[in-house]
Amino acid sequence: MKRFIITMLIILSVTEIVTAKACLENIKITKVTDGDTVKGIINGKEMSIRLSGIDCYETSKRDRAYKQAYLNKMSIEDVVKRGKESKEILTNILKNNNNITIRFTDVDKRYNRNVGIIYAGDINVNEYMVQNGGCMMFEYKN
User: Fold this and answer.
1) What number is the average pLDDT over the span 58-82?
2) What is the pTM of this model?
C-alpha cells in the first residue's frame, strides 16, 4: 500500500509539471506599460497583460498614484519616480531575453486584460519584480 501511494504521488507530480509547462505560451512583448502591465503578441493577437500577484507604483500622476502616495505616506513625486524605476527594471529584464513565455491565471474584467505569470527563460518575472523591481505582493481580486 505504501509503495502504491508513493507511486501515485510521483505520477501526480510529473503530471502537474507537464501540465504547467503545456500551459506556457510564447509571447512577444510590444510595450511595457508600467512595472506590472505589458502589451504583447500571442498567436498573432496583441493583448494587454497584468502581471499576477504584484502591484507596482504608478508612472504618472493619476487617481491611483495619489491613493498610493496617501496609503504609503509618500509624495506623489516619489510614487511616480518609483513607478518609472519599476517600469525600467521590467523593460530591461524583458528586452535582454529572447525566450519570453506566459502562463495565464485570470482575466481582469474591469480593465479588459489578461492576468498571468511571465517568464524570461527560467526567471519568474513576477517574483523578480517583487524582489528587485520595487513591486509589492498583491492578491488579485476580480
Assistant:
1) 95
2) 0.79
